[in-house]
């Protein structure tokens, strides 16, 4: 079985959870016999790990018959010609430049370089819509050049590419929903993104959702047939021991951590308020908000206003090793997301022996038993849970042991086997 | 005959390094040596040394009729000592002419006057002591951080024995009254006040090279002409500014140094003006009225108030949390701790947290190492957290008997002691 898979990013060049999930899944799939993957990304840098699959960069694909393709593509995919300011992933580092630039929708025709290749940034930048558009266009060429039995597209950025590939080869299409715009926007959906998402789901032969929470959104908000939507939970890559160097914890107090983009979707304000409540009862604790995003400044100001800044710290955006370093010195990990399709980071925390508190509005809460689950808006419950874990050692010990055990059993190979079943069902 | 009082302020913040959460409890060094050193050396080369040389020549060529005054913060003196000792030497030369007065202020350019009288007094004393050691004169007139002044601060300064103080001639305080007279404190009338003439001062300090200004270019003739147009009865014109005006705020290419070189001669030519220092002024003139300043004023920004340092919740939080530690610092009386405590009080840390971006962003971005006020706040609070941990540890374990830190300090003191001895002996040999 040959799978033509469209993604947006691939390790080590990732900026969000999507890249991590795609990598884990493809690694899992590679262990299945008789299954080959061609993984396509807009931009291949050349230093990616290709041992498990063939990686194709859309930026390295030679384009034939440029004019004709564009005409054909434009007539069939007019919905892609959008000129609106889209902020798809709120990538923290890109966010500001992105919002401020006025580069949207200037170029209607693509430029190819001297080798007849299109250029891609592979980022969530200002020309995102143009990139999606270009990507879809190249996808049809890739689909023609690479033999395959099934097409698999990850998230809305890649749906147009999946649709284009399907049109050329006529093979079945599976779309994988890692998040919907309802999660990202907190309800005020961008109609253009919604349109592309719905278009992808409508064109798909099967839809994979990362949790039942997401599956329900797909059925209710996007009007999909329940029988067409299958839930496959994510997993987590085991951490090798070399990655975990012993770090000296500089503070004596318990450390409670929030780690993620500081955006509305992740519910940072509930964390600040809960911290304030906990600090009223005990002094033996420090709170850390790691990450950056458009709500960071608001959170800094709020912590100052509450007068807890000597116990509430900010680290800014953490990369690579620093994430593990952060887990190493954490005693509790909190994810109060308002709407989280899945949420891999609590699993990473549990791997590092950190007890986790997650919101009920997260996909990962459907599969975890050894975690405290609260409603994201319930600040009292959140404060109570934090206080319990930092105050009662036995509680935290049990969470550490059982949690580690639980998370070690969540393997990408299981998720991959499930995806393989979906493929087989679609093909037959 | 009118008097012209020239006063220059010298201060360079001691910038903190990027202090991350991971450093808390692990690393107790807070300062960005590289940036501090490079800024001090640059400023020494472009401003302090050339300007000092000009002033020295002017004093010599005008034979004691040209006088200026300075205040240099302790934090800046410390940095000169480490990175540019030649600057201190050149100030010593100026001091030796007898035409240069050094004013008193807080050691670390702090806002202690607003928070804690005892701390304020300690800092003022240690600064005056330092000035006396270096320049051989005991300051008689006081200058508070950023010219911050209120009736209460004035009274506290008077109680420390100072006869005069300089402050901003803020419009909302003086109203129709002119800054060109001596005033006195409302609580203790013995304390005389010199009010900054902000129009004439800022014409040089801010507007000198602004080409869109309708008076550009500013020449010495024009400046003297403005002085001539002042009311006949007015007694003293206080021209106060940052010393960095020469060569930094106004670049060398703008002709600011030439302006400085020619100014004294132009002013003295007509014979109707003389230069005086603040101490001369309070001896020579009598106050014309009481200045009522119930709420603190400063020379910063359009508002001339405290909002540049204590204007938002970030600043207030950091300020409160800092002074909560005072008791512990005092009871420990540990040398390294005291040093950091001094440096952490610098008003600059709070200034960098200012969110009044839109009106006075220009001034706030001077020498500012941070991207945003939030960034400044986060970094400062991380440092403060570590400082608190050290305090707690020392308090619990008692003073560490033989830590490396203490050993180093002892050696440092020994080196200094020997250095002064060597100097004394050298002098003795030379005079013999």
Domain module count of chain B: 2
Largest interface by residue count? A-B, 26 and 27 residues
Query: What would you report as the Rg of chain A, rounded to the nearest angstrom?
Result: 22 Å
CATH topology of the largest domain in chain A: Rossmann fold
Label the CATH architecture of the largest domain in chain A.
3-Layer(aba) Sandwich
Shape type of chain A: elongated
Low-confidence stretches of chain A: 65-109
Please write the string of helix (H) and strand (E) elements of chain A.
EHEEHHHEHEHHEHEEHEHEHEHEEHHH
Would you tell me the structural class of the helices and strands of chain B? Answer: alpha/beta
The radius of gyration over CA of chain B amounts to: 22 Å
CATH topology of the largest domain in chain B: 7-stranded beta/alpha barrel
The CATH superfamily of the largest domain in chain A bears the name: Glycogen Phosphorylase B
Organism (chain B): Carboxylicivirga mesophila
GO molecular function (chain B): hydrolase activity
Pfam families (chain B): Glyco_hydro_57
InterPro entries (chain B): GH57_Enzymes (IPR052046), Glyco_hydro/deAcase_b/a-brl (IPR011330), Glyco_hydro_57_N (IPR004300)
Textual characterization of the structure:
The complex is a heterodimer of chains A (428) and B (432). With 428 residues, chain A is of the alpha/beta class. Chain A folds into two domains: 2-235 and 412-427, Rossmann fold, CATH 3.40.50.2000; 254-408, Glycogen Phosphorylase B (Rossmann fold, 3-Layer(aba) Sandwich). In chain A, 42% of the residues lie in helices and 14% in strands. Chain A has helices at 17-30, 66-76, 92-100, 128-145, 155-169, 181-185, 191-203, 212-221, 268-281, 296-306, 321-328, 345-351, 379-391, 393-408, 412-427; strands spanning 2-6, 36-41, 54-57, 150-154, 173-177, 206-209, 229-231, 254-259, 285-290, 312-316, 332-335, 356-359, 372-374. A seven-stranded parallel β-sheet of chain A has the order 3-2-1-4-5-6-7, sandwiched between helices. In chain A, strands 10-9-8-11-12-13 form a six-stranded parallel β-sheet, with helices on both faces. In chain A, strand 6 (206-209), helix 8 and strand 7 (229-231) form a beta-alpha-beta unit. The longest helix of chain A has 18 residues, at 128-145. Chain A is elongated and about 65 Å long. Chain A starts with a strand and ends with a helix. Chain B has 432 residues and is of the alpha/beta class. Chain B folds into two domains: 2-291, Alpha-Beta Barrel (7-stranded beta/alpha barrel), CATH 3.20.110.20; 309-413, no CATH class. Chain B is built from 18 helices and ten strands. Chain B has helices at 33-61, 74-83, 85-96, 117-135, 151-159, 171-174, 198-205, 220-228, 256-269, 278-284, 307-310, 313-323, 326-332, 335-344, 347-351, 357-364, 373-397, 404-431, and strands at residues 2-10, 68-72, 100-102, 141-143, 164-168, 182-185, 192-196, 236-242, 273-276, 289-291. In chain B, the strands form two sheets. In chain B, strands 1, 2, 3, 8 and 9 form a five-stranded parallel β-sheet that branches. A five-stranded mixed β-sheet of chain B has the order 4-5-7-6-10. In chain B, strand 4, helix 5 (151-159) and strand 5 (164-168) form a beta-alpha-beta unit. Chain B is globular, with a radius of gyration of 22 Å. The model of chain B has no long low-confidence stretch (mean pLDDT 91). The chains are: A alpha/beta (428), B alpha/beta (432). The interface between A and B is medium-sized, with 26 and 27 residues. Chain A: Residues 146-237 form the Glycosyltransferase subfamily 4-like N-terminal domain. Chain A: This is Glycosyltransferase family 4 protein. Chain A: Residues 242-405 form the Glycosyl transferase family domain. Chain A: It holds the Pfam family Glycos_transf_1. Chain A: InterPro entries: Glyco_trans_1, Glyco_trans_4-like_N, Glycosyltransferase_grp1. Chain B: GO terms for molecular function: hydrolase activity.
